[in-house]
Write a structure and sequence with these properties.
The complex is a heterodimer of chains A (543) and B (142). Chain A contains 17 helices and 20 strands. By secondary structure, chain A is an alpha+beta fold. A five-stranded antiparallel beta sheet of chain A has the order 1-2-5-4-13. Chain A has a five-stranded antiparallel beta sheet with strand order 3-14-15-12-11. In chain A, α1 packs antiparallel against α2 and α1 runs antiparallel to α4. Chain A starts with 5 loop residues before the first helix and ends with a helix. Chain B is an alpha/beta fold. Chain B has one domain: Rossmann fold, CATH 3.40.50. Chain B is globular, with a radius of gyration of 15 Å. The chains are: A alpha+beta (543), B alpha/beta (142). The interface between A and B is large, with 42 and 37 residues.
Amino acid sequence: MYRYDEYDQSIVDARVDEFRDQVERRLSGQLTEDQFKPLRLMNGLYLQLHAYMLRVAVPYGTLDSRQMRMLAHIARTYDRGYGHFTTRQNIQFNWIKLADAPDILAELATVEMHAIQTSGNCIRNISADQYAGASADEVADPRPWAELIRQWSTFHPEFSYLPRKFKIAVIAAEEDRAAMRLHDIGIRLVAQDGGIGAQIYVGGGMGRTPMISHLIRDFVAADDLMSYLEACLRVYNRYGRRDNIYKARIKILLHEIGADEYRRQVEEEFVAVKQLGLDPPRAELERIAAMFAAPAFETGLSAHVERDDPDFAVWIDQNVRPHKAPGYAIVNVSLKPVGGIPGDASADQIDRLADLAQRYSFDELRVTHAQNIVLPHVRQRDLQDLWRALVEAGLAEPNLDLITDIIACPGLDYCSLANARSIPLAQKIATRFADRDRQRELGELKLKISGCINACGHHHAGHIGILGVDRKGTENYQLSLGGSGAEDVSLAKITGPGFDEDGVVDAIERVTDRYLAERKAGERFLDTYRRVGFAPFKEAIYG
Amino acid sequence: MAEAMLRFRDDEAQDEPAVTLDAFLGQSNATAVRLEAGEDARALVPHLDRLRLVEVSFPTFRDGRGYSSARILREAGYTGELRAAGDVLVDQLPLMRRCGFDGFAPQVPLDDAAVARALDRYAYRYQAAADDSVPVWKRRHG
């Protein structure tokens, strides 16, 4: 875990002071709402339908129990007793009073947390692979690199008023668990000639014009990374469109000038920027990396797990993943109970997860972009005790990557941008497919729901995606198929005319029935879809 | 306008009116130029030695292109006044100073106390920029 030193703490404390000043000026009328808006947004404070929402940064999705307990405390004290984990590995609180926001930030600062750049047209919180430091397939832990980028991007003087928001993800494995290719900049760490460097992808994103990023540079050494990112951002800041908010993301710039021309401009800028001495010495990456050193894993542990209890066995098979250290496992805690709100956790559950992390997982937790929680380092011999505790807390749903493990945006229940509700639809779908055997029979099936075209629910990347639209004053849901946010990245294709809420649930069922009829042994839904194509599914849906 | 001006320089303020980029590039004797948000600051680079004032326009505080213009000019060695003009608000001032602006002509006058608070607030900066702040990584590693 990264630990703040006096500099980090001073910067976060100053931010609390600054925001308190801004809120006071707003409350006293010195700032208009128009002037206050970008300031509060840069601190993660949105005005929603019913109240302010505060989005708290969880850098690269990593937390310890002390921080987790603070989140529970905030949920209890300033919200209605729960928090909502987001697709960018953050947490948001939906019922915040403006006057309380500075106090909340002050409390967060006591546990090395903040809400800096969790919204606004700036470089957002950096996301990363949730299995960092635990999975055998990574070439390095991506988090030290993400922390280096966090520091570089925090209050960046040149890039705080970009054309539009800017999201960066860092992974370090072939398998992409962070939807890296759908970020403004996606970084994959790779090994080359004995060193680790960054492969730079630019121009991915969802929203109303989804695009998959382009490989812009095959290898950037650690010593050049900040200069290279500076060049990438400068070209965007100067030439990204500002005339139309819907065309302002960097993906549109790349689309309009082409990836080759963008690369040419970046390389030219990089040559100039590299002379400026912007890159920290290697010792800084090493200082940070030392704080992410692997915990003291025990050796000689037995990998034997007693599978007598069938419920426990199902949970193991579905939610537990192999760990790089023998005798350990990665545990996924689903925040998708059937009938629940995807990504929500109560203050008591958040506290309980903190306890369990402390007891069983070297005091570490991760938030995933699929809105679940990971306990990254659990001894296999502790799995059963952990599972029992999770069952007791209502956190043992064995549905990781199954059809009920739905990503959903807050939708019209909270969000002022939404056209349709997402949460009730997610609940309805999960209820329809609640039967555990049926879900497992369908296998990996990533279903994602967005309540408007901004695509916060990642519907473009869903094996099955649903987009809520407003059609003449009634909620209407468009179905799309074949998307993926993983290493086999693809964008989903709209099936045809939309449905009402019950209609779309029926249509999904026709899709899954057709999959079961068409699939060959070992094929996931996505594999079958890619093999047989769109037509059989379209026929199944519309007859 | 003169009262609203804020300067962080010891030299005399340039009183020659700033000309447009096109006009500047077309005549040899102007020493003050105004850059609109979308204009290429690099067009000025061959002429820096005769420039005393570059005024960078901020049509709205949301338009951040001027921050890059400022840095490009400072990186190219420009030492004259770099003035941010237009929708310049107190909360943007610290960022603008870091990008190399040392003159400000805000549309709406800024409160002196608020300016002082904003500029003094952060003792440390993470990244190097066009000002003389020592980045945190350099403080850590010397």
